[in-house]
Amino acid sequence: MAVSKFSDVDEYGFKREADFDYQSYENIMSSYLSVLTTRSMRWQKFLQSADMLKNRSKLKRFVRKGVPGSLREEVWMKTSGAKDLQQKEPNLYQTLLTYEFDQEISDQIKLDLPRTFPDNIHFEQYQVSLYNVLIAFAHHNRTVGYCQGLNYIAGLPWPVIATKWFICLYAEVVPTETVLRIWDCLFLEGNKILLRVGLTIVVRLRQDLLATDDISTLIGLFRSLEKSYVLMDCHEFMKSIFKVPGNLRRSQLDALRQRFYSERMANKSKGS
After folding, report:
1. Percentage of the chain lying above the pLDDT 90 cut
2. How many Cβ atoms from other residues are within 10 Å of residue 180's Cβ?
């Protein structure tokens, strides 16, 4: 049996499964690492430019090709708008932590913390920090508050799959490096990226999906996406999300959302 030079824990601390395809991963990383090196040098120079956020077309091109891990914190803070908000209210987070917490929300967060990334060897040391972030957000944005998750309807695979994709932003679905590449684009271009990713997954795995002959096999296929070579090769996959779905105009998506909402409200009225 060939010995891999890669650890059974990835660079982000997630344990790899026993049947992880090290050979395919090595094949992908042998070329991807050189891409990362080149992108890192270009990003360093780009970040020093005063008009980085103003040069939208160049910024989008850079983000779509991937943000180096060492620069993600800085880039995400800028592209998401968090940096501007932080500068406007620099003490907001610390102030929120001094508030009297809603006990029900606090208890729910504490209940969920041990369930968060249980296969990550580093996560336990960050649970207090995560608790603080979640409780501060819940009290600052009371409309959203804290949501443990959704209860899924057994036997209906698409609601289960789609919710896992869109609610968790693919965090528990695809390989870690691919998740981060998706988030690179998400922070800059918004939630349309999530739809592009979902459509691309369905199209690129079309043959496998059509080959399934029962619901359990279909669900199993979607649950094994993290092992898919298509998704493991994050660089090629991210290129494809801007080609495979074609042109997705925001106005068209907004119209479809409004249509769906209207139909849902109409059906709800009929049922009441």
Report:
1. 28
2. 17
Burial 229-251 (b: 16+ CB within 10 A, else e): ebbbbbbebbebbbebbeeeeee
Tokens, residue 154:
């057994």
For tokens 């120079």, what's the residue?
A: 45
For residue 116, the enclosing domain spans 89-144
Residues 157, 163: Cα–Cα separation, whole Å: 10
**182 φ/ψ angles, rounded to the nearest 5 degrees:** -65, -45
> Would you say residue 47 lies in a domain?
no
Model confidence pLDDT, tens digit, residues 40-51 = 999 999 988 877
Measured N-to-C along each axis, helices 72-79 and 176-189 cross at an angle, to the nearest 10 degrees, of 30
pLDDT tens-digit readout, 169-187: 888 788 889 999 999 999 9
User: Which one, of 173, 223, 172, 166, lies nearest residue 193 by Cα?
Assistant: 166
In a domain, 129, yes or no: yes
135 within a domain of the structure (yes/no): yes
Is residue 85 left, alpha or beta, with left meaning phi > 0 and alpha meaning psi from -120 to 50? alpha
pTM given for the model: 0.76
Q: Where are the alpha helices (DSSP H) in 113-233?
A: 127-140, 157-167, 176-189, 192-204, 206-211, 215-223, 229-232
The answer to whether residue 116 is domain-embedded is yes
**Which is more confident, 44 or 221?**
44
Instruction: Quote the number of domains for the chain.
Output: 1
Which of 51-60, 62-71, 104-113, 156-165 has the lowest average pLDDT?
Answer: 156-165
Q: Helix, strand or coil for residue 116? A: coil
What is the rounded average pLDDT of the residues 110-125? 83
How many whole angstroms separate alpha carbon 150 and alpha carbon 166? 12
